[in-house]
Every structure is written in structure tokens, then in C-alpha cells.
Task: inverse folding
């Protein structure tokens, strides 16, 4: 008998949403990744009676996110989505690297079912924690008719994994989509579609199966006043495989940094230009180092890692 896919699986990875502080008024001196995903669900009575399953995949502060956790998480998401009874997956995560995890999952899995990442800026013990509302909203998004792809549900807005960036260090609405292109809003539990659900071609889990300690080493170097390129030379002596330049404006680079990056490229290091601006693409021009398009430096780094994994597998 065909069963309706109505199960939402919540995968816990830690973060401030699972963080605790000694006092309710302490919003910054807390410890992230203390509560289990079942505890987070227990704090949202509005989800009682829903068809939910909880699984703890990791328990870390997302500033410490690493390749092996990404491998485990991607495999867990893939396995859950393959179950016919699963309608979608929600991932509780820290805000710090949430956009990186979202982008990686988008590129590797590009799922037809929804994968909704959510998080919190305040710990679970705060006077007014934002985590329970965000978790409730994320489940609503995962269950929404037509929902698909990797998105971030945060502070009432639904962001595309390719567009989203953490843009504020403290505010509860800490995320923005580049050029304001939201997928949807969540209002009183209702998902109001504004754009399109993300879609793409999946690279596949095999792309990231290499042991995490053998992944290519890709670093980000920034252009700024006085950028002299010596950092690039130092990284080359350490055997860096790729470099993403977070350039100024349209990916512009100081003469010295540009020269150092060209030398690195000539020596076999993959080099792309992105921008340190909060939004906007880097337009390619003849004679310049290749552009990373509209990807932020951290997302361009992931894209380059995936490209290098593909070249050498
Ligand atoms: N450092 C925390 C984390 O990323 C911050 C947060 O979740 O807001 O896990």
C-alpha cells in the first residue's frame, strides 16, 4: 500500500539553538551545542502530534564545522530523503557556518524533497529564545506543498541556499538573501511563496567520499589596503591547492596580490576571484583571473573544493 509521505525528520548538529547559558539574560556568554534535538522539539508544543523523527548527527558549535561532519550529514540527509515516507528533512545548525553547510548540501544532493536548515541567535535558555519559533517554521516549510531543495528558514524568511549569508553578528534576523531574493516567508505557520524553490544538478555523494583529511586545501585571501601578496606565497610553500581571492568591489586586487596570485596559478594552484562586498557578482573581463560569479568567498571556496575533488577523483 502506498503511504503518504508526511514524516519530517529533524537532524540535530548543535549550534546556539541547542545552547545553554547560566542565566536567562545571558545572550552571548553561553555554550553552544548542549541540548539534544529531542529537547529542542520538546520546547515546541505546537509540534506535538506531528509526524516527526529526531536524529542527532553531530553536536558542535558550527564555527568548528569540518569536512567529516559534512560527509556524515550529507549521507544522513540522503538516506532519510530516500525513505518513501519522508516528506522532508529539517537540520538544526549553528548560524556561523550555516550558509556553507546549506551550499554544500545543495551542490552535492540538489534534493527534490525539501531540506530546511534552521538555527537561532539566542540560546535555548534565553528570556525570549528564537530557536523554538524557527524550528516550528522550518517544519512548516518542510511540509509545505511543492517545497523542494535546500533552503534556510530563519526569522520568518525562507532563503535559497545559494543566496543566503549571515550578515549580522547579533540581531535575531541575522540572515539575508543576496539582492533580496527570498524564496518565501512564514507567517503564522503558513508558507507564502515569493520566489522559486531551489533546484540544480546534484554532484552526488560520491564526489565527497574521499577521506576528509585528503580533501583539497583551499584558502581565502582578502584584498585590502596594503595587500602585498606575501600570504599567497606563504600558502604556496605549504602546498595549497586552491585560492579564492575575496577582492574589493568587482573582484579587484592590488597589483602585488594580483601578481602573487598569477604566480600561484602558473604554478598549478587553482585561483578564482570573488568579492568581499556583501552582495553582487564579480564580472569576468578578458585578461583577469577567473571570476567566481555571484558566489560569496566562502561558497566559492566550497565550489572550488568540489571542483578539485571532481578533477582528481
Ligand atoms: N557559534 C554558534 C554556532 O554557529 C553561533 C550560532 O549558532 O548562532 O554554532
Result:
Amino acid at each position: 500500500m502506498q503511504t503518504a509521505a508526511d514524516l519530517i525528520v529533524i537532524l540535530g548538529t548543535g549550534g546556539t539553538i541547542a545552547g545553554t547559558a547560566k542565566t536567562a539574560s545571558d545572550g552571548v556568554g553561553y555554550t553552544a551545542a548542549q541540548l539534544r534535538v529531542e529537547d529542542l522539539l520538546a520546547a515546541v508544543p505546537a509540534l506535538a502530534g506531528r509526524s516527526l523523527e529526531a536524529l542527532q548527527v553531530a553536536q558542535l558549535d558550527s564555527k568548528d564545522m569540518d569536512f567529516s561532519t559534512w560527509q556524515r550529514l550529507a549521507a544522513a540527509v540522503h538516506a532519510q530523503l530516500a525513505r518513501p515516507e519522508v516528506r522532508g528533512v529539517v537540520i538544526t545548525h549553528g548560524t556561523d557556518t550555516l550558509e556553507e553547510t546549506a551550499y554544500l548540501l545543495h551542490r552535492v544532493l540538489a534534493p527534490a524533497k525539501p531540506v530546511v536548515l534552521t538555527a537561532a541567535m539566542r540560546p535555548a535558555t534565553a528570556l525570549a529564545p528564537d530557536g523554538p519559533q524557527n524550528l516550528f517554521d522550518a517544519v512548516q516549510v518542510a511540509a509545505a506543498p511543492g517545497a523542494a531543495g535546500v533552503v534556510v528558514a530563519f526569522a520568518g524568511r525562507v532563503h535559497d541556499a545559494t543566496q543566503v549569508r549571515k550578515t549580522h553578528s547579533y540581531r535575531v534576523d541575522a540572515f539575508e538573501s543576496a539582492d533580496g531574493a527570498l524564496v518565501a516567508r512564514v507567517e503564522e505557520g503558513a508558507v507564502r511563496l515569493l520566489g522559486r524553490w531551489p533546484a540544480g544538478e546534484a554532484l552526488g555523494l560520491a564526489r565527497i567520499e574521499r577521506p576528509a583529511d585528503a580533501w583539497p586545501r583551499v584558502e581565502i585571501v582578502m584584498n585590502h589596503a596594503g595587500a602585498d601578496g606575501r600570504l599567497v606565497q606563504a600558502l604556496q610553500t605549504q602546498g595549497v591547492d586552491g585560492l579564492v581571492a575575496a577582492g574589493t568591489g568587482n573582484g579587484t586586487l592590488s597589483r602585488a596580490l594580483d601578481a602573487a596570485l598569477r604566480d600561484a596559478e602558473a604554478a598549478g594552484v587553482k585561483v578564482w576571484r570573488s568579492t568581499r562586498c556583501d552582495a553582487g557578482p564579480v564580472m569576468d573581463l578578458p585578461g583577469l583571473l577567473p571570476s567566481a560569479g555571484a558566489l560569496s568567498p566562502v561558497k566559492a571556496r566550497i565550489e572550488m573544493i568540489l571542483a578539485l575533488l571532481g578533477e582528481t577523483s
Observations:
- The helical segments are 37-42, 67-81, 98-109, 131-143, 230-237, 255-266, 297-312.
- Residues 20 and 271 are 41 Å apart (CA to CA).
